[in-house]
Amino acid sequence: MKILKSYFKIVSLLLIILFLFTSCHNSKSIENSLNIQNDNIIRISYIDVGQGDSELIQVNGKNLLIDAGTNESTNKVISYLDKQNVKKLDYVVATHPHEDHIGGMSDVIKKYDIGQFYAPKKLTNTKIFENMINALKSKNLKINVARAGIELDLGKDVKCEMLAPNNNNYEDLNNYSAVIKVTYKNSKFLFTGDAEKLSEKEILSKSYDLSSDVLKVGHHGSTSSSSKDFLDKIAPRMAIISCGKNNDYGHPHKETLNEFEKRKIQVYRTDVDGTILLISDGTKISKM
Protein backbone atom coordinates (compact mmCIF):
# COMPACT_ATOMS: atom_id res chain seq x y z
CA MET A 1 0.00 0.00 0.00
CA LYS A 2 2.85 2.35 0.92
CA ILE A 3 4.61 1.51 -2.34
CA LEU A 4 1.41 2.30 -4.27
CA LYS A 5 1.05 5.68 -2.52
CA SER A 6 4.68 6.51 -3.26
CA TYR A 7 4.13 5.56 -6.88
CA PHE A 8 1.12 7.89 -7.18
CA LYS A 9 3.09 10.73 -5.55
CA ILE A 10 5.96 10.32 -8.00
CA VAL A 11 3.59 10.16 -10.99
CA SER A 12 1.70 13.25 -9.77
CA LEU A 13 4.96 15.14 -9.27
CA LEU A 14 6.16 14.19 -12.74
CA LEU A 15 2.86 15.31 -14.27
CA ILE A 16 3.08 18.69 -12.49
CA ILE A 17 6.69 19.20 -13.67
CA LEU A 18 5.70 18.20 -17.21
CA PHE A 19 2.74 20.62 -17.15
CA LEU A 20 4.87 23.52 -15.88
CA PHE A 21 7.60 22.84 -18.42
CA THR A 22 5.08 22.61 -21.27
CA SER A 23 3.36 25.82 -20.12
CA CYS A 24 6.66 27.67 -19.91
CA HIS A 25 7.74 26.36 -23.27
CA ASN A 26 4.45 27.30 -24.91
CA SER A 27 4.38 30.78 -23.37
CA LYS A 28 7.98 31.36 -24.49
CA SER A 29 7.13 30.16 -27.99
CA ILE A 30 4.14 32.52 -28.13
CA GLU A 31 6.22 35.36 -26.71
CA ASN A 32 8.98 34.75 -29.24
CA SER A 33 6.51 34.63 -32.12
CA LEU A 34 4.97 37.89 -30.91
CA ASN A 35 8.39 39.51 -30.72
CA ILE A 36 9.09 38.44 -34.28
CA GLN A 37 5.71 39.80 -35.38
CA ASN A 38 6.22 43.06 -33.54
CA ASP A 39 9.27 43.77 -35.68
CA ASN A 40 7.08 43.66 -38.76
CA ILE A 41 3.78 45.19 -37.73
CA ILE A 42 2.18 48.49 -36.89
CA ARG A 43 -0.09 48.76 -33.86
CA ILE A 44 -2.74 51.48 -33.71
CA SER A 45 -4.59 51.96 -30.43
CA TYR A 46 -7.67 54.15 -30.29
CA ILE A 47 -7.79 54.63 -26.54
CA ASP A 48 -11.17 54.84 -24.85
CA VAL A 49 -11.04 58.25 -23.17
CA GLY A 50 -14.78 58.91 -23.11
CA GLN A 51 -15.83 62.06 -24.96
CA GLY A 52 -12.37 62.84 -26.28
CA ASP A 53 -9.51 61.59 -28.44
CA SER A 54 -6.24 59.75 -27.93
CA GLU A 55 -4.41 57.44 -30.33
CA LEU A 56 -1.13 55.57 -29.96
CA ILE A 57 0.81 54.48 -33.04
CA GLN A 58 3.63 51.94 -32.47
CA VAL A 59 5.94 50.84 -35.26
CA ASN A 60 9.66 50.06 -35.68
CA GLY A 61 10.16 50.48 -31.93
CA LYS A 62 8.85 54.05 -32.11
CA ASN A 63 5.82 55.60 -30.44
CA LEU A 64 3.60 58.42 -31.68
CA LEU A 65 0.85 59.74 -29.41
CA ILE A 66 -1.90 61.82 -30.97
CA ASP A 67 -3.84 63.70 -28.27
CA ALA A 68 -4.23 62.69 -24.64
CA GLY A 69 -7.95 62.64 -23.90
CA THR A 70 -9.81 64.61 -21.25
CA ASN A 71 -8.50 65.69 -17.88
CA GLU A 72 -10.83 63.13 -16.31
CA SER A 73 -9.40 60.30 -18.44
CA THR A 74 -5.72 61.07 -17.68
CA ASN A 75 -5.21 57.94 -15.58
CA LYS A 76 -6.75 55.80 -18.33
CA VAL A 77 -4.30 57.14 -20.90
CA ILE A 78 -1.25 56.72 -18.68
CA SER A 79 -2.34 53.26 -17.54
CA TYR A 80 -2.75 52.18 -21.17
CA LEU A 81 0.64 53.58 -22.19
CA ASP A 82 2.27 51.78 -19.28
CA LYS A 83 0.61 48.49 -20.27
CA GLN A 84 2.12 48.90 -23.74
CA ASN A 85 5.55 49.29 -22.08
CA VAL A 86 5.92 52.83 -23.37
CA LYS A 87 9.02 54.49 -21.90
CA LYS A 88 9.54 57.11 -24.58
CA LEU A 89 7.15 58.92 -26.86
CA ASP A 90 9.18 59.80 -29.94
CA TYR A 91 6.48 62.18 -31.09
CA VAL A 92 3.49 63.74 -29.36
CA VAL A 93 0.90 65.71 -31.31
CA ALA A 94 -1.76 67.86 -29.66
CA THR A 95 -4.12 68.20 -32.62
CA HIS A 96 -5.77 71.36 -31.22
CA PRO A 97 -6.17 72.96 -27.78
CA HIS A 98 -9.58 71.68 -26.71
CA GLU A 99 -9.81 70.03 -23.28
CA ASP A 100 -11.08 66.72 -24.67
CA HIS A 101 -7.85 66.40 -26.67
CA ILE A 102 -5.22 67.89 -24.34
CA GLY A 103 -6.79 67.30 -20.92
CA GLY A 104 -4.24 64.64 -19.99
CA MET A 105 -1.33 66.15 -21.89
CA SER A 106 0.46 67.86 -19.00
CA ASP A 107 0.68 64.59 -17.04
CA VAL A 108 1.84 62.70 -20.14
CA ILE A 109 4.57 65.28 -20.73
CA LYS A 110 5.73 65.06 -17.11
CA LYS A 111 5.81 61.26 -16.99
CA TYR A 112 7.42 60.21 -20.28
CA ASP A 113 10.60 60.98 -22.16
CA ILE A 114 9.45 62.92 -25.23
CA GLY A 115 11.36 63.37 -28.47
CA GLN A 116 9.41 66.08 -30.29
CA PHE A 117 6.15 67.85 -29.46
CA TYR A 118 3.81 69.28 -32.10
CA ALA A 119 0.77 71.56 -31.82
CA PRO A 120 -0.91 74.05 -34.16
CA LYS A 121 -0.03 77.72 -33.89
CA LYS A 122 -2.99 78.67 -31.73
CA LEU A 123 -3.04 79.89 -28.13
CA THR A 124 -5.95 79.65 -25.70
CA ASN A 125 -6.37 81.09 -22.22
CA THR A 126 -7.66 77.92 -20.54
CA LYS A 127 -6.12 76.38 -17.43
CA ILE A 128 -5.64 73.07 -19.28
CA PHE A 129 -3.64 74.79 -22.03
CA GLU A 130 -1.59 76.66 -19.42
CA ASN A 131 -0.82 73.39 -17.63
CA MET A 132 0.39 71.86 -20.89
CA ILE A 133 2.68 74.83 -21.62
CA ASN A 134 4.11 74.77 -18.09
CA ALA A 135 4.77 71.03 -18.34
CA LEU A 136 6.65 71.58 -21.61
CA LYS A 137 8.70 74.39 -20.06
CA SER A 138 9.57 72.23 -17.06
CA LYS A 139 11.25 69.74 -19.43
CA ASN A 140 12.72 72.34 -21.79
CA LEU A 141 10.58 71.08 -24.65
CA LYS A 142 9.64 73.46 -27.44
CA ILE A 143 6.47 73.36 -29.51
CA ASN A 144 7.02 72.47 -33.14
CA VAL A 145 4.26 73.96 -35.27
CA ALA A 146 1.83 71.36 -36.59
CA ARG A 147 0.91 72.25 -40.17
CA ALA A 148 0.45 70.69 -43.57
CA GLY A 149 3.68 69.42 -45.09
CA ILE A 150 5.34 68.24 -41.86
CA GLU A 151 6.68 64.67 -41.91
CA LEU A 152 7.51 62.55 -38.86
CA ASP A 153 10.16 59.83 -39.00
CA LEU A 154 8.69 56.53 -37.78
CA GLY A 155 11.32 54.36 -39.41
CA LYS A 156 11.42 51.96 -42.34
CA ASP A 157 8.39 51.32 -44.53
CA VAL A 158 6.46 54.16 -42.87
CA LYS A 159 5.36 57.54 -44.18
CA CYS A 160 3.80 59.86 -41.62
CA GLU A 161 2.68 63.24 -42.91
CA MET A 162 0.49 66.12 -41.76
CA LEU A 163 -2.17 67.23 -44.25
CA ALA A 164 -3.60 70.06 -42.12
CA PRO A 165 -3.96 72.71 -40.87
CA ASN A 166 -3.56 74.60 -44.13
CA ASN A 167 -4.27 78.02 -42.67
CA ASN A 168 -3.26 80.16 -39.68
CA ASN A 169 -6.56 81.83 -38.98
CA TYR A 170 -9.80 79.99 -38.28
CA GLU A 171 -12.91 81.11 -36.41
CA ASP A 172 -13.55 77.59 -35.12
CA LEU A 173 -10.78 76.06 -33.01
CA ASN A 174 -11.59 72.61 -34.42
CA ASN A 175 -10.27 73.60 -37.84
CA TYR A 176 -6.76 74.10 -36.43
CA SER A 177 -6.69 70.32 -35.97
CA ALA A 178 -3.56 68.54 -37.17
CA VAL A 179 -4.66 65.91 -39.69
CA ILE A 180 -2.19 63.04 -40.01
CA LYS A 181 -1.89 60.20 -42.49
CA VAL A 182 0.21 57.18 -41.57
CA THR A 183 1.13 54.71 -44.31
CA TYR A 184 2.80 51.43 -43.37
CA LYS A 185 3.67 49.48 -46.52
CA ASN A 186 0.21 49.05 -48.10
CA SER A 187 -1.85 49.89 -45.00
CA LYS A 188 -3.09 53.46 -44.63
CA PHE A 189 -4.56 55.22 -41.61
CA LEU A 190 -5.98 58.76 -41.42
CA PHE A 191 -6.36 60.73 -38.17
CA THR A 192 -8.43 63.90 -38.43
CA GLY A 193 -8.74 65.28 -34.90
CA ASP A 194 -11.80 67.54 -34.88
CA ALA A 195 -11.20 68.98 -38.36
CA GLU A 196 -14.50 70.17 -39.78
CA LYS A 197 -15.80 70.58 -43.33
CA LEU A 198 -13.88 73.83 -43.91
CA SER A 199 -10.56 72.12 -43.20
CA GLU A 200 -11.66 69.09 -45.21
CA LYS A 201 -12.36 71.37 -48.18
CA GLU A 202 -8.89 72.92 -47.89
CA ILE A 203 -7.30 69.45 -47.74
CA LEU A 204 -9.24 68.41 -50.85
CA SER A 205 -8.02 71.51 -52.70
CA LYS A 206 -4.38 70.45 -52.15
CA SER A 207 -4.74 67.24 -54.14
CA TYR A 208 -3.28 65.04 -51.39
CA ASP A 209 -3.57 61.27 -51.68
CA LEU A 210 -6.26 60.76 -49.05
CA SER A 211 -6.99 57.11 -49.78
CA SER A 212 -7.00 55.26 -46.46
CA ASP A 213 -8.09 51.89 -45.16
CA VAL A 214 -9.01 53.28 -41.76
CA LEU A 215 -10.44 56.70 -40.89
CA LYS A 216 -10.39 58.11 -37.37
CA VAL A 217 -13.62 60.02 -37.82
CA GLY A 218 -13.50 63.79 -37.38
CA HIS A 219 -15.12 65.52 -34.40
CA HIS A 220 -16.44 62.35 -32.76
CA GLY A 221 -18.82 61.57 -35.62
CA SER A 222 -20.45 64.99 -35.74
CA THR A 223 -22.20 66.21 -38.90
CA SER A 224 -19.77 69.15 -38.81
CA SER A 225 -17.18 66.74 -40.30
CA SER A 226 -17.04 63.79 -42.70
CA SER A 227 -18.33 65.59 -45.78
CA LYS A 228 -19.33 63.37 -48.70
CA ASP A 229 -16.54 64.69 -50.95
CA PHE A 230 -14.00 63.99 -48.20
CA LEU A 231 -15.26 60.43 -47.71
CA ASP A 232 -15.25 59.89 -51.48
CA LYS A 233 -11.52 60.64 -51.60
CA ILE A 234 -10.65 58.59 -48.51
CA ALA A 235 -12.84 55.60 -49.42
CA PRO A 236 -12.17 53.89 -46.07
CA ARG A 237 -13.09 50.30 -45.32
CA MET A 238 -13.19 50.99 -41.59
CA ALA A 239 -14.14 54.02 -39.48
CA ILE A 240 -13.23 54.55 -35.82
CA ILE A 241 -15.33 56.94 -33.75
CA SER A 242 -13.97 58.13 -30.41
CA CYS A 243 -16.79 59.36 -28.18
CA GLY A 244 -18.31 58.99 -24.71
CA LYS A 245 -21.35 56.96 -23.73
CA ASN A 246 -24.55 59.04 -23.67
CA ASN A 247 -22.57 62.23 -24.31
CA ASP A 248 -24.31 65.61 -24.28
CA TYR A 249 -23.62 66.25 -27.97
CA GLY A 250 -25.43 63.23 -29.39
CA HIS A 251 -22.19 62.01 -30.99
CA PRO A 252 -21.98 60.19 -33.27
CA HIS A 253 -24.79 61.82 -35.23
CA LYS A 254 -27.25 59.57 -37.04
CA GLU A 255 -26.59 61.29 -40.36
CA THR A 256 -22.90 60.38 -40.14
CA LEU A 257 -23.64 56.77 -39.20
CA ASN A 258 -26.15 56.51 -42.06
CA GLU A 259 -23.54 57.76 -44.51
CA PHE A 260 -21.08 55.11 -43.32
CA GLU A 261 -23.74 52.42 -43.57
CA LYS A 262 -24.65 53.50 -47.09
CA ARG A 263 -20.98 53.19 -48.07
CA LYS A 264 -20.67 49.79 -46.34
CA ILE A 265 -17.92 51.11 -44.03
CA GLN A 266 -17.29 49.00 -40.93
CA VAL A 267 -17.72 51.23 -37.87
CA TYR A 268 -16.15 50.75 -34.44
CA ARG A 269 -16.86 53.09 -31.52
CA THR A 270 -15.03 53.55 -28.25
CA ASP A 271 -18.34 54.13 -26.43
CA VAL A 272 -19.46 50.67 -27.56
CA ASP A 273 -16.24 48.71 -28.11
CA GLY A 274 -13.92 50.37 -25.57
CA THR A 275 -10.28 50.79 -26.58
CA ILE A 276 -9.81 49.59 -30.17
CA LEU A 277 -6.54 47.96 -31.23
CA LEU A 278 -5.71 47.46 -34.90
CA ILE A 279 -2.64 45.56 -36.08
CA SER A 280 -1.30 45.40 -39.63
CA ASP A 281 1.58 43.59 -41.27
CA GLY A 282 1.43 46.17 -44.05
CA THR A 283 -1.16 44.24 -46.05
CA LYS A 284 -3.84 42.88 -43.75
CA ILE A 285 -5.41 44.98 -41.00
CA SER A 286 -6.84 43.04 -38.05
CA LYS A 287 -8.89 44.20 -35.08
CA MET A 288 -7.61 42.51 -31.92
Q: Could you please describe the fold and organization of this structure?
A:
By secondary structure, the chain is of the alpha/beta class. The protein has two domains: 1-38; 45-287, Ribonuclease Z/Hydroxyacylglutathione hydrolase-like (Metallo-beta-lactamase, Chain A, 4-Layer Sandwich). The chain has helices at residues 2-38, 74-83, 99-102, 105-111, 127-138, 197-205, 228-234, 254-262, 270-273; strands spanning 42-46, 55-59, 62-66, 88-93, 113-119, 143-145, 151-152, 158-164, 179-184, 187-191, 214-216, 238-241, 266-269, 276-280, 285-287. The strands form two sheets. The chain has an eight-stranded mixed β-sheet with strand order 6-5-4-3-2-1-14-15, with helices on one face. A seven-stranded mixed β-sheet has the order 7-8-9-10-11-12-13. The longest helix is centred in the N-terminal third of the chain and has 37 residues, at 2-38. The chain is globular and about 50 Å long. The chain starts with a helix and ends with a strand.
